[in-house]
Amino acid sequence: MWRLDLSTSEAVRERLQGALHRSTGLLNLDLSGVSFCDAAGLSVVVGIRNQAGARDIVIALAAPRPHVAKVLQLADLDHSSAPRSGWASMMPSV
Question: pLDDT per position in the chain (94 positions), as tens?
């Protein structure tokens, strides 16, 4: 388990940017190992989504733990009912 928070956000952002540059159409973010996400973590998710949208790459969030899924839902980042451009959700409704 790991945390997506202020202490990890920069390293995660850099790793995701690298994955985004290698991606050709869909970037799956497996969130099953994320036990905690704060505002800094949400900022990483939003930033990567925006960069992906600019490159016509879809971001798919997969398998978040219940607490993380709730945080994403409260931040309107789950889009389980209405996916937006550059965004796909494989998250269950919370």
Answer: 999 999 999 999 999 999 999 998 889 899 999 999 999 999 999 999 899 988 989 888 999 999 999 999 998 887 633 334 455 555 544 4
Q: Which residue in 58, 48, 63 sits closest to 94, CA to CA? A: 63
Listing DSSP states for 2-41 in one string gives: EEESTTTHHHHHHHHHHHHHH-SSEEEEE-TTEEEE-HHH
Token pair 């209405």 in the structure block, residue: 82
Structure tokens at 45: 């998710």
- The tokens of 58 are what? 């879809």
- How is residue 77 written in tokens? 């980042």
Contact predicate 2/34, CB 8 Å: yes
